[in-house]
Each structure stands twice: as structure tokens, then as C-alpha cells.
Amino acid sequence: MTELDRWRAEIERIDRALVALIRERVGAARRAASAKRAAGLPTLDPAQEAAVVRRAAALAREAGLEEEGVRDLFWQLIGLTRRAEQQPSAAAASER
Amino acid sequence: MVIVMATNATVAQVDGTREQLERLGLRTYLARDGFRAVIGCPGDVDAVTSKGVAALPGVEAILPWRAPYRLASRQLAPRGGRTVVRIGDGPDAGVGGPALVVIAGPCSVEAPDMLLETALAVGQAGAGALRGGAFKPRTSPYAFQGLGVEALRWLAEVRRQAGLPVVTEVLDPRHVDLVAEHADVLQVGARNMQNFPLLAEVGRVRRPVLLKRGLSATVTELLLAAEYVLARGNRDVILCERGIRTFEPATRNTLDVGAIPVLRRETHLPVIVDPSHAAGRAELVAPLAYAAVAAGADGLIVEVHPHPETARSDGEQSLSLPEFAALMRGVARFAWAAGRTLPGVQPRRQEVAA
């Protein structure tokens, strides 16, 4: 195995972990949406989303990552979560 | 609106201002010039919100957008900053930087050997990227339509052999991922400039996009087409002036040289010129290329064919390999006069003095 192969394997391992984390995040957001519905609150919360992105930007800065790129990623992630929240059956199926 | 932050605004104040807008469901984009942050908010902001934002700590001024395009606007590039779109590995592979980037190759990919021969020759002559059509938008449904996926494979192979990044057109939104697998730059052709589903798709993938001006499109329409790509999160857009349709039949199209300085004033995006389609005839390509460089173009895209007389499309406007090498030596003189460089091409001293 060359050094390049080793780094590619490492990237694949990280990608697999990232997808697993995204799945976990979508599941947690779906449960938060259920909790909001039970409490009679609206599920969509733009203020909370903006706060999440702000937090991610601050963490990216601390980590020395390109902040705008991380913001973009989190807006994509929020879009993904929103769509999953709107399709509870599909999200539930993906959790099984 | 555009929010100009004070020079002494803290990072937390910039974050807070953006959050204030984003919690209303608006998106914000940040530009920095080393001295201050400028926040662009392309969505519609009501007067109450605008007043509230103006009162936030660290905010110096609120400006309205001057034009319908927003993310493409120079207002998001304080102090004359320009977007440099990297299309390859080399130090001079940034379109919009000090070096001119010349993209050259056949109108359509016809066979692997002619593609490799062209790539090696144009690379030797100083071209920074290879062009070649796999999917061809033709006015007539009976004209050669390109070799499709097979041509994409040849492009990818020649890319590896010649070490040149590849620019090729994507015609169909369903082909965007396929073309992005093989090419470094996705071209949206003049006829598709306002194909909004296609613009949205190329905005989704993170590949530089070469957006050609439509035959009858205004500069504002071109910039709004770019805005579709930018708004989807892809910031790497290269604009291309390729001639517009006028009453004049002596040239295939009329090269709108004036659009080059206008675009440079209006947008931070790089601007290149396609003299081949504007000219329609090989002998007009060089003077139009020189005019483009003199007017401030960041690069050129030129049709080159090893045997123009046998080309399956656009042979009459294609340069032969020696004609392309001569064009590059001429372009180097105009690059020098315009304060730009053309790496890999040395204009002869007497040519510079001429």
C-alpha cells in the first residue's frame, strides 16, 4: 500500500464517519421536531437555524478552517435536515 | 442590501449582523478587503429590518443594490478585488489573475489522435487549457451533434497525457454529473445562457463554470444568468463574450468589445473572449483576439484544429496549429501592453518594439 493509498483509505474512513454523523443529526432533528409539535410549537425555526450556522462559523474559525465554506456546508446540512423533518415516514425508514 | 461594517468592527459583530438577517430566513455573503467586512444580502429586506440592522453595533452603512444582479456585483468586491477562478494546478492557472489564460482546441472532439495532437501543440504554444466539444448544440438537427460520452472519455485521457485542464460544454441538466466527472470546467453555451434548470445544476456541482453570453443577451442578462449559478453556491464563474447578433453579415457575430470594460466595471467575475465565434472566419480571429486583450479581457477561448479544412464543425473559423502559435506570439505583445503576462510565450523584442 502506497502512502497515497493510505491517505485515501483514511479519507474514506472519515467520509463514512461523516455520513453516519449526518444520519445521526437528521434523526436527532426529527425527534426535536416531534418534541416541538407535541409542545404546540412551529417546527421550522429560522432563528435557531441562524444560531446553528453562527456557532458552526465560530467553531470553524477556532479550528482554522475556511469559515465561508463551513457556513455553506451547514446551510446545506440544514436544508437536508428540513427536508427530512418534512417527510417523517422517509426519515423514520432511514433510521431502521 | 449591502452592509458595510466599520473598520474596527469585531468578528462577533460581523457574526451577529449576519445572524440577525439569517434568522429572518435570508442568506448573507461576506466579502473582506483586509480593512473591513462587507456583507451582501441578496434577498429582499423590508424597511423595518433595514433600520434595525443599521442600528447594530459595528455597522457603518447600509447601501441598496445598484443593479438587479447581486452576488455578481462589484459591490461585493470592495477596493476593486476580483475573483480568480482556478481551473488547473499550475501557478498561472487562475482566470482573472495577472496572467492571461488561453483555452484552445477543436470545436468538436472527432477522434482521440486529433485531440492529442491538438492538445500537445496548443500546450507547447502556451495555451493554459484544452477545449473540445463532446455534446454540440447545432442550429440544424441534421448537423453533426458531437460524439457524446465517447468524446468525454477521450478528453479525460488526453487531459492526463497532455497535462492540460479540459473545458467542455454541458447541454443537458441530466449530464452535469457525467461531464463533471471528465472535465475541469463546465461550459454553458450561448444558446443555453438562460436555460435556468441547467444553470441551477452547474451551480450545484463545485466545478468552475464558463458561461457564454447569449446571441441576443444584454450584459445585465448575462450577469443575471451568472447570478443563478452563484446563488446555488458555486462562486467560480467565468464570463465569456462571444459576439452578439447584429445586422452585420460580414462577421458571423459582432464582437462586443465594449462589453469587456463594462463587465469589468460591473462585476468581480473574470471575463474572457471567444474571437472564433465572433469572427466566423479564421483570418479575423487574431485582430479580434488582440482587441479583446487590449480592452482588458482575462483570457481567450480559441478554436484550433490540426486540419481545419476537414473539421466536422466550424472549420472555417478554426486556426491551424501553426496559426495558433503565431496568434499566441501576437497576443503576448498585447498582453504586455495591457499590463498582463502570457506565461510560456515570449514576444520577440522587435515585435514588442513594433
Brief sketch in words of this structure:
The complex is a heterodimer of chains A (96) and B (354). Chain A has 96 residues and is mostly helical.
How does this model look, in words?
The complex is a heterodimer of chains A (96) and B (354). Chain A has helices at residues 3-38, 46-63, 67-86, 88-95. Chain A is mainly α and 96 residues long. Chain A has one domain (3-95): Chorismate mutase (Chorismate Mutase Domain, subunit A, Up-down Bundle). In chain A, α2 packs antiparallel against α3. The longest helix of chain A is centred in the first third of the chain and has 36 residues, at 3-38. The model of chain A is unreliable at 90-96 (pLDDT under 50). Chain B has 354 residues and is α/β, with parallel strands linked by helices. Chain B has 2 domains: 2-64, Alpha-Beta Plaits (2-Layer Sandwich); 85-353, TIM Barrel (Alpha-Beta Barrel), CATH 3.20.20. Helix content of chain B is 35%, strand content 15%. Chain B contains 12 helices and 14 strands. In chain B, strands 7-8-9-10-11-12-13-14 form an 8-stranded parallel barrel, surrounded by 7 helices. In chain B, α6 (196-204) crosses α7. Chain B is elongated and about 65 Å long. Chain B starts with a strand and ends with a helix. In chain B, 49% of the residues are buried. The model of chain B has no long low-confidence stretch (mean pLDDT 92). The A-B interface holds A 46-47, 49-51, 53-54, 57-58, 61, 68, 72, 75-76 and B 11, 15-16, 18-19, 22-25, 27, 29-30, 233.
